[in-house]
Amino acid sequence: MSAEKKNLILAFESSCDETSVAVVEDGHIILSNIVATQVNSHKRFGGVVPEVASRHHIEQITSCVQDAMTEANVSYDDLDAVAVTYGPGLVGALLVGVSAAKAIAFAHELPLIPVNHMAGHIFAARYESEISYPSMALLVSGGHTELVYMPEEGQFEIIGETRDDAAGEAYDKVGRVLGMTYPSGKEIDELAHTGKDTFNFPRAMIKDDNYDFSFSGLKSAFINTVHHADQLGETLDRADLATSFQQSVVDVLAEKTLRACHEYDIKQLILAGGVAANKGLRARLEADMEKMDTVEFIKAPIKLCGDNAAMIGAAGYVEFLKGQRAGLDLNADPSLEFDWIA
Amino acid sequence: MKILAIDTSNIPLSVAVLEDKTLLATMTTNIKKNHSITLMPAIADVMKLAGVKPAELDRIIVAQGPGSFTGLRIGVATAKTLAFALDCELVGVSSLELLAAGISDDKTDIVPLFDARRNHVFSGLYRNSNELINELPDQHRDLVAWLTELKERNQSQIFVGTDVDLFKPQIIDILGEQAYFPAPFLNVPQAFILGLIGKDKEPVEQETFIPNYLRLTQAESQWLETHSDKDHNTYVEKI
Ligand SMILES: [Zn+2]
């Protein structure tokens, strides 16, 4: 009796401030997923500084490969392909992962698979459940807020996105006003569970006949409210501020997502991206989706919501099966995007 | 010993494969094309021409800086990962030393330099008498201050590098007849020379190998004006 050959992909992710290398089996089993986070470094500056990020990536890259291979207990001979994020992201940061992935692909004559970082985020959900098509994904992170329609495997079409700030960006800016250290998403989420929505901040574009979002008005309303109170010498309840802010974000995200789920004939809704770890958002969508028995709701596992290479390995596996390959001239594409729906 | 040498520190890109002191194949470009597009195909082509398989490499030598931060990282990330993946030796060589090594004149100071923008340069001072000696370390300097310091040595000085043309008027203005300029072909770094210099150097520890930027990032130097770099949490941690 011979065991069926397993597909093993060595995956790289370095688009922002996490250097990550993973070994993934058959696109849905994590053998290792090493993540070196630079968050303590960028905290000094209140946000990610691109040149600092690139410098950390190159310090970490081979050590992450070493750990990923050791933990997975595999050798280069066991590997079937190398997958790498080539965009979107910070160009200098992407280039470290792309250069390293190409070097390994060349050294061991392995196929090289280019992966879109946002597709990676969506495929983090593959570790929760198989994905069936057509499917819809709500992708929320520090850099992106978009609704992505997937008619079939490997096809991604944006049906709506933020017109200004990403949701994660709004969390960080609001966090700064509340005196929290970067990144503040988690802290706001926790605080939001202890207060009440008393400020009733605007829900921008919630009734508009499209799937776009806007968070800059909410951010301004929040900042103005706090500054106005400061001038009057009043202190506002931080928990209520956090709850009111989060409620506004979650209302808009949930309402538009739900409408998309009704209007598109889909089998699944996938929640993915860094902000998908937000407990308020998860709970709200879960409650809403319970009422929609035709659409299955899949959340990316909390541990895999942030940037990591396991998600790139999962997305890379799909591309691998489709025969998608990059040459040794693969370049980073910092503004890589999904297509807009025609 | 089979050697792969790589330089991507600035606009020129050069790759060479050597067998000990003998050049087998090389490629050099001096065009404004992203090194991340050009480097890996160039390595593959040059190795194929040389008839050397990746697994046969004994040593990889890379120009470690100073230079363009992005260029350096493409070269160093590629060299470091190749050496790691092939389990072979890794050697870093100063990108300025590489230029200086092309000049055989033993009567003059050799001053390789790269443009570092805002009238600053990356430069150092070398002498070539039997072997190449680094007399003043590679540094990031205001051009005028650097030229003024060089003037005081009262030595004939040869300025080498593709960016030298850009600074020629200022060099001549401050140093007058003390300054010399080499034949143009010596201004372009050659990975063959990189291989020759790196062949005899001590291999480095791969995991911690990074480019020699010779400059902190702006964010870090501003931060250090008001903070101490001691007793902080590890900046990068595996989670
Ligand atoms: Zn991301």
TrEMBL record, chain A:
GO terms for cellular component: cytoplasm. One of its GO terms (molecular function) is tRNA N(6)-L-threonylcarbamoyladenine synthase activity. Fe cation binds at H117, H121, D307. It is found in: Cytoplasm. InterPro entries: ATPase_NBD (IPR043129), Gcp-like_dom (IPR000905), KAE1/TsaD (IPR017861), TsaD (IPR022450). Keywords: Acyltransferase, Cytoplasm, Iron, Metal-binding, Transferase, tRNA processing. Substrate binds at L139, V140, S141, G142, G143, D172, G185, D189, N278. Residues 30-313 form the Gcp-like domain. Belongs to the KAE1 / TsaD family. This is tRNA N6-adenosine threonylcarbamoyltransferase. The lineage of its organism: Bacteria, Bacillati, Bacillota, Bacilli, Lactobacillales.
Automatic annotation (TrEMBL), chain B:
It holds the Pfam family TsaD. CDD domains: ASKHA_NBD_TsaB (cd24032). GO terms for cellular component: cytosol. InterPro entries: ATPase_NBD, Gcp-like_dom, T6A_TsaB. Residues 29-158 form the Gcp-like domain. GO terms for biological process: tRNA threonylcarbamoyladenosine modification. This is Glycoprotein endopeptidase. It comes from Dellaglioa algida DSM 15638.
